[in-house]
Amino acid sequence: MNNLADRIAQLCCEKYNSFGKTGKPQDTEWTVLAGIVLKDAQESLSVVSLATGTKCLSGTELLDTKQWEIGSRLSDSHAEVLARRAFLRYLYHQLNLRLNDNNSDIFELDANKTICLRNNISLHYYCSQTPCGDCSIFPKIVENCVFGVNASARKRKLHANDDMEVKRAVLQEDYQCDEYDVHRTGAKCVEIDKQDSRLPGINYHLLGPIRTKPGRGDRTLSLSCSDKIAKWNIIGIQGALLSRLIPPVIIDSFCIGGQSPFSLEAMQRGICERFATRRCPVFMQSEQSFVHRKGDNRARPCPSSIIWCAVPERQLEISVDGRKQGATKKKKRGNYLLISKQELFRTFLVTVDKFNRTTASEENHPKKITYYHAKQSSATYQQSWQLLKLQSFRAWPAKPLYLQDFVLV
Ligand SMILES: [Zn+2]
């Protein structure tokens, strides 16, 4: 198998198949599989993080979070988001290898002894289906539709303009065929933005606005996967905390699993064109399909998630409702998922201490700094994010502050 998309998909599916039954769909359940694959200097591929998941806490459930759960319960358990969190564990492990003077697969020191990414590696993101949100909206019969016919003229207009309203008007020109229906997404336009017409046929959805994920009954405060991936594409997938220690980590290609509805145009629009960015990764679809994908005989979403990453210890975790499966409801370290804010924050603080000792840097932190303040002190990252919000993500809903205002347990 030589095709890169097929090799990536096959590796992720094989890794998934190697896990036991715990956390996997049963009977008529389906799930989504997402993962990140590293291509090294020798062009060999290896899976470094993997996750399944379909659920997201509703706004009401999130606001119901108990004091002991702040920083420990995951609000967004879509596979794409969990695979990123697992990837953060992998990044910390690789960074610690480098700080301990061991060989790291992805980090090295440049001439100034600053930690940088090896320049002959690349990162490839796999998802068994098209991400929810804008990327999922496209005509059902693409070939017979004028959708995409004026693609090059439209692209020129998009690139010539940074005004979001103009961009959206240009994007809406995609919808010039009215006898066809569109693939729909459950994600809803954010409340302060214009809303979908929900008229039958091709104009059901608006193109371009950022959207929140559907939850149990009511809206969630979590953005759709298309929006989150778009953010990672612009300011990196590493997040605020790691930005203090490493340069931005950018994904080079996205591979969607076989037998999922897929449109190259919609992927390019959803991740790049509707925002003020010139950076566009490669988008591909594999022929290889995921065994537990949604289908006629798999109609119910699986409530649990499998989370895995390539680290030496405790690689595999199972979660249900954003909590570690089987954990007792107590404010105690052993009850937290290793990909929760609490545990990633702990890993960050330990890594910062080591970073300071090895690089004579002054990334100091007070003993009882809150998660929120640690994130805010990542100045360069916060500047990029504030600018991006002004340009493209003005409507991005902020999570209530108290959910980030915690110190380590
Ligand atoms: Zn999603």
Automatic annotation (TrEMBL):
The keyword Zinc applies. InterPro entries: A_deamin. This is tRNA-specific adenosine deaminase 1. Coiled coil: none annotated. Residues 49-406 form the A to I editase domain. Specifically deaminates adenosine-37 to inosine in tRNA-Ala. GO terms for molecular function: metal ion binding; RNA binding; tRNA-specific adenosine-37 deaminase activity. It catalyses: adenosine(37) in tRNA(Ala) + H2O + H(+) = inosine(37) in tRNA(Ala) + NH4(+). It comes from Neodiprion lecontei (Redheaded pine sawfly). The keyword Metal-binding applies. Keywords: Hydrolase, Metal-binding, tRNA processing, Zinc. PANTHER family: TRNA-SPECIFIC ADENOSINE DEAMINASE 1. GO terms for biological process: tRNA processing. Belongs to the ADAT1 family. Pfam families: A_deamin. Its cofactor is 1D-myo-inositol hexakisphosphate. Its EC number is 3.5.4.34.
